[in-house]
Specification:
Blueprint (H helix, E strand, L loop, with lengths): L25 E2 L5 E2 L1 E5 L28 H15 L3 E5 L9 H11 L5 E5 L4 H11 L3 E5 L5 H8 L4 H13 L6 E6 L7 H11 L2 E6 L17 H9 L4 E6 L7 E5 L5 E5 L12 E4 L4 E3 L7 E3 H6 L4 H13 L19 H4 L2
Parallel strand pairs: 3-4, 3-12, 4-5, 5-6, 6-7, 7-8, 8-11
Antiparallel strand pairs: 1-2, 9-10, 10-11, 12-13, 13-14
The structure holds S-adenosylmethionine (SAM) and iron/sulfur cluster (SF4).
Length: 351
């Protein structure tokens, strides 16, 4: 039997699925219920962010190993109808690299009406597709943008595509994919531009969240000693803005919110490394190859694609998904001695 790791430094028992309670929802041994589904639909990307991808990109996944449009729609429907998922976000790699993205969105919107569908994207090329995506049923987008300085952006992403990203964000706003949330990963190179990024987001009406860099880069360069933490960010932002802590909007939302200059504008900080919030995690993840991951840091995966292609029915697939989530770890364990990053990097898991 595989072992599980505990985020709080507590030894956790050997894994057993036999003791999983017979309930429909995606429950785990620590009392959490997963309702927020992240669906990675591709490993390819138009950028090469240093904290995520290697310079040459991730190894190509042959087409036949990627979930098809219909398979994604089917699994999303099972997640919602049979497992209690109430929110779906498409991610990758870069979801815009899939030509059938509009079809995936439209298929899911039809299969699970009323369930919020969103997408995490780098926004490169979004300008041309924002309206079609909104028409297909996409509700809103989270855009990853770490710097509004063109040179810094190009250095960090290894691509000079900032103008396309900014055009994509504005097109998304025009198409009604709102509120637009901007995610920025904290890196030493971009810390000096953090206040400019916040200023830009306030002007454009976007909600900004900074995220501590996690050890999920393909190059495995992450180091605890050099990472920029929330405290350093607050110091940097504090030189331009007056920030007042307002806490977390809801317990499963990882961002701690701060009022900017007395509000009403806010900025969020996801201190994923220094303030562990795994105890409130309500996520379940599907990789582009159709495996379920119970968490970012566990390499244990359950292969729904293989089961589906060998004829498994909905109930069988739902049961496999429940088994996968039952084995979810207590926490990421980044701060534990002997921590090992997972085999897959963020771009290959789906952030
Ligand atoms: N390409 C899309 C994008 O960048 O928004 C979607 C996929 S990307 C892997 C999803 C999210 O993961 C992005 O917001 C990105 O900033 C975040 N991410 C990637 N690597 C990370 C890391 N090492 N630590 C924290 N967040 C990371
Ligand atoms: Fe691509 Fe997103 Fe990873 Fe950047 S964070 S390399 S945009 S997948």
């Amino acid at each position: 039997m595989p072992r599980v790791r505990g985020g709080g430094g507590q030894p956790t028992p050997a894994l057993s699925r036999a003791d999983r309670p017979s309930v429909a929802a995606l429950v785990d041994r620590f009392g959490r219920v997963a309702k927020d589904l992240r669906v990675s639909i591709i490993e390819k990307c138009s950028l090469r962010c240093t904290y995520c991808m290697p310079a040459e990109g991730l190894p190509n996944i042959p087409q036949h190993r990627l979930l098809t449009t219909d398979e994604i729609v089917r699994l999303v429907r099972i997640a919602v109808e049979d497992l209690g998922v109430n929110e779906v976000r498409f991610t990758g790699g870069e979801p815009l690299m899939r030509r059938d993205l509009e079809d995936i969105v439209a298929g899911c919107a039809q299969a699970v009406p009323g369930i919020p569908l969103s997408m995490t994207t780098n926004a490169v090329g979004l300008e041309r597709r924002a309206r079609r995506l909104a028409a297909a049923g996409l509700g809103r987008v989270n855009v990853s943008l770490d710097s509004i300085d063109r040179a810094h952006f190009a250095e960090l992403t290894r691509r000079d595509r900032l103008p396309s990203v900014l055009a994509g964000i504005r097109a998304a706003a025009r198409a009604g994919l709102a509120p637009i949330k901007i995610n920025a990963v904290l890196m030493p190179e971009t810390l000096s531009g953090a206040a400019d990024l916040l200023e830009w987001c306030l002007t454009e009406g976007c909600l900004l969240r900074f995220i501590e860099q996690m050890p999920l880069d393909a190059d495995r360069r992450w180091a605890r000693a050099s990472m920029v933490d929330a405290e350093r960010l607050l110091e940097a932002l504090g030189e331009r803005f007056d920030l007042t802590e307002v806490g977390r909007e809801d317990p499963s939302a990882p961002a701690e919110e701060w009022l900017v200059d007395g509000g009403p504008a806010t900025v969020g900080i996801v201190a994923s490394v220094t303030r562990n919030f795994c105890a409130d995690c309500d996520r379940t993840r599907l990789t582009a190859e159709g495996t379920v991951r119970s968490g970012l840091f566990s390499d244990e995966e359950v292969d729904l694609r293989a089961a589906m292609r060998s004829g498994a029915g909905d109930e069988k697939l739902a049961g496999l998904w429940r088994d996968a989530m039952w084995s979810k770890w207590a926490g990421h364990g980044i701060n534990l001695e002997g921590f090992e990053p997972p085999n897959r990097s963020m771009g290959a898991i789906g952030g």
